[in-house]
Specification:
Elements lengths: L4 E7 L32 E5 L7 H5 L2 E3 L19 E5 L3 E5 L4 E5 L6 E5 L30 E8 L5 E4 L6 H8 L17 E7 L2 E7 L26 E7 L5 H15 L7 E7 L6 H15 L4 E2 L8 H9 L1
Parallel strand pairs: 1-3, 2-4, 9-11, 9-12, 12-13, 13-14
Antiparallel strand pairs: 1-8, 2-7, 5-6, 5-8, 10-11
């Protein structure tokens, strides 16, 4: 199951404490201070990994802590600094500082790495405080605390093409026809309960296509599968709007989805749109063409006719992706 949102607490490591210590050697009865400094606490980094696809690790574990630095030692030995903590996120992850609602990072490319919390500096041991007038300091510093942050992680899939439409319009079937994806397919609404991604090869190009679970009227306000997946359309370049050619009211079906996109984010309506009447295999060819022409006249936009089952019109649709 795709986990595309999580709120987590991040804590960098505290610095180790400095030590109060004096030399105690057989022939040096009044040895000077030799307390070592504490080690630095571990930093916390987020790193973008191509083999990570969801935020499920952060859904299961709500708090992440780096190690603390080691306390100083005698003989002016420094405590060991802690190793940094690396947390992996998928491409498309947006990191928001929860308290300030401030975007800290937007990961798009694998390998990107961001320090998200800084470990505390280690405290000085008493050897650090010895002077000509204060030869035997009996105090040392505590380590500084590591940074703490509450992060809101939000995943927006990085896809070139988004498939949208009412439930059972054939989006999953189309994705399985044109790509290597194998989503669950059945003839009833809400078969798809999470976005599916597929890679489509067109000539010398590869495009990522996302099948967004069926939207219904009121989806932008949480109805049906709700607004859970609408965010995944925001990064797409092209929206393919699938409509069942057998619908009793094609224009209404089309407008329902358009209205939900507009409510969620008006910028979605500015993306390139390909309007497709699907399931042409269920009607005689001339009847499907007649329906398409009437629909084009009503909405004043071009319409393609395809069958995701038989493959009719698929080549023309794919050419539209790269034109």
């Amino acid at each position: 199951m795709l986990t595309d949102e999580a709120i987590v607490k991040i804590k960098a490591g505290d610095g180790g404490a400095g030590v109060v210590s004096f030399r105690h050697e057989r022939f040096v009865p009044k040895g000077g201070p030799d307390g070592g400094d504490g080690g630095r606490g571990g930093d916390v980094y987020l790193i973008c990994e191509s083999n990570v696809h969801t935020l499920s690790d952060f859904s299961r574990k709500k708090e992440w802590r780096a190690e603390n630095g080691q306390n100083g030692k005698t003989k002016k030995q420094h405590g060991r600094s802690a190793q940094p903590l690396f947390l992996k996120v998928p491409p498309g992850t947006i990191v928001i500082l929860e308290d300030e609602k401030k975007v800290l990072s937007d990961f798009k490319n694998p390998g990107e790495k961001v320090q998200i919390a800084c470990g505390g500096r280690g405290g000085w041991g008493n050897a650090h405080f010895a002077t000509a007038t204060r030869q035997s300091p009996v105090f040392a510093q505590k380590g500084e605390p590591g940074e703490e942050k509450t992060l809101h992680l939000e995943l927006k899939l990085l896809a070139d093409v988004g498939l949208v439409g009412l439930p059972n319009s054939g989006k999953s079937t189309l994705l399985s026809r044109i790509s290597n994806a194998r989503p669950k397919i059945a003839d009833y609404p809400f078969t798809t309960l999470e976005p599916n991604l597929g890679v489509v090869k067109i000539e010398d190009q590869e495009l990522v296509v996302a099948d967004i679970p069926g939207l219904i009227e009121g989806a932008s306000k949480g109805k049906g599968l709700g607004d859970k997946f609408l965010r995944h359309l925001e990064r797409t370049k092209i929206l393919v709007h699938l409509i069942d050619v057998n619908s009793q009211n094609l224009a209404k079906d089309y407008q329902i989805i358009r209205d939900e996109l507009k409510i969620w984010n008006p910028l979605l309506l500015k993306k390139k749109e390909i309007i497709v009447l699907n399931k042409a295999d269920t009607l005689p060819k001339k009847e499907a063409e007649k329906i398409a022409k009437a629909f084009e006249k009503e909405i004043k936009k071009s319409v393609l006719i395809i069958s995701a089952v038989s493959g009719e019109g698929i080549g023309k649709l794919l050419r539209e992706f790269v034109s």
